[in-house]
Amino acid sequence: MTEDTETRDTGRPLRVGTRRSALARAQTEAFCARMPGWPHAVEIVPITSQGDTTTASLASLGGTGVFVTALREALLAGQIDVAVHSAKDLPTAPCPGLSIAAFPTREDPRDLLVAGAPLAQLPAGARIGTGSPRRRAQLLRRRGDLEVVDIRGNIDTRIGRVLAPRSPSERLDGVVLAGAGLARLGRTGDAVEHLDLREWPTAPAQGALAVETRTHSEAHRVVATLDDPATRQAASVERAVLRLLEAGCAAPLGVSVLEADAATGEREVLARVYALDGSGVVESRGRLHPDALQDAEVHEVARGIVADLLDQGAADLAPLHGTP
Ligand SMILES: NCc1[nH]cc(CCC(=O)O)c1CC(=O)O
């Protein structure tokens, strides 16, 4: 592959592609504000993706990468130099010619509940919205009496169904959302409960951004200065569990790195696969040494966890591959 002859050398700004949703724009702007040369040497380019234009349920779209394909195509076609993705939306399969130049410092990886009261205090039969099979299983496991409603839409729309429903049939008692998304939109104040990762591990790489570039490019070198090794380690091990389970983004899998033991600096990886109705769960844990930053080391930890989950019957408990 030849080096791109672009950007700084020619004086052209780095073109940073973003999806058009409010969340995508907010996270792209937050990232760009940390780029060397911002704002003069950076230009934000909105790109439309199928995941933003369809109202079909996320599970029914079935594909990994509905949010990502358009940005990747624009990168490969040279229309943009940098693509800012939510790391949890990025398929685990590598894309030839592209690589993740940076995982910037992660935000809150937890899920939050927006509702009138914390989960334990909601009335019997409360209606909680989520489109995620993992969140559905976790909700039902915690409270078998809840009615889980399949919803889609951007964060404002989802919160609106709790705080300002347009009709009685739209009304929900609560929604579960990624804390990082709420934080990026300045809406964490709407949450009544932060769901503790030890009881509620989340989607692989939730709360992290993955910033992709063409592998051999000036943009790659610039963006790599914003990589955070601890975030890369956590996102990589969580994504490796997903990949080695051969699971899709709709699998009822929660996997989260829990922050370091103060004495040893070691981090713990917690992975759970749930039955879709919350009736069962298998769990595995691994240890992550803070210096284990090589791909092979991270992969080894994930491999151990996945072997353990499969030994315990994870593949019989839950549909890992396709949509249920
Ligand atoms: N599934 C869509 C999606 N992709 C990334 C985020 C939130 C931000 C993040 O996790 O980085 C969300 C919304 C949500 O799950 O509530």
UniProtKB/TrEMBL annotation:
<keyword id="KW-0808">Transferase</keyword>
<dbReference type="GO" id="GO:0006783">
    <property type="term" value="P:heme biosynthetic process"/>
</dbReference>
<keyword id="KW-0627">Porphyrin biosynthesis</keyword>
<dbReference type="GO" id="GO:0005737">
    <property type="term" value="C:cytoplasm"/>
</dbReference>
<dbReference type="InterPro" id="IPR022419">
    <property type="entry name" value="Porphobilin_deaminase_cofac_BS"/>
</dbReference>
<feature type="domain" description="Porphobilinogen deaminase N-terminal">
    <location>
        <begin position="14"/>
        <end position="219"/>
    </location>
</feature>
<dbReference type="InterPro" id="IPR036803">
    <property type="entry name" value="Porphobilinogen_deaminase_C_sf"/>
</dbReference>
<comment type="function">
    <text>Tetrapolymerization of the monopyrrole PBG into the hydroxymethylbilane pre-uroporphyrinogen in several discrete steps.</text>
</comment>
<dbReference type="Pfam" id="PF01379">
    <property type="entry name" value="Porphobil_deam"/>
</dbReference>
<dbReference type="InterPro" id="IPR022417">
    <property type="entry name" value="Porphobilin_deaminase_N"/>
</dbReference>
<dbReference type="InterPro" id="IPR000860">
    <property type="entry name" value="HemC"/>
</dbReference>
<dbReference type="GO" id="GO:0004418">
    <property type="term" value="F:hydroxymethylbilane synthase activity"/>
</dbReference>
<comment type="similarity">
    <text>Belongs to the HMBS family.</text>
</comment>
<protein>
    <recommendedName>
        <fullName>Hydroxymethylbilane synthase</fullName>
        <ecNumber>2.5.1.61</ecNumber>
    </recommendedName>
</protein>
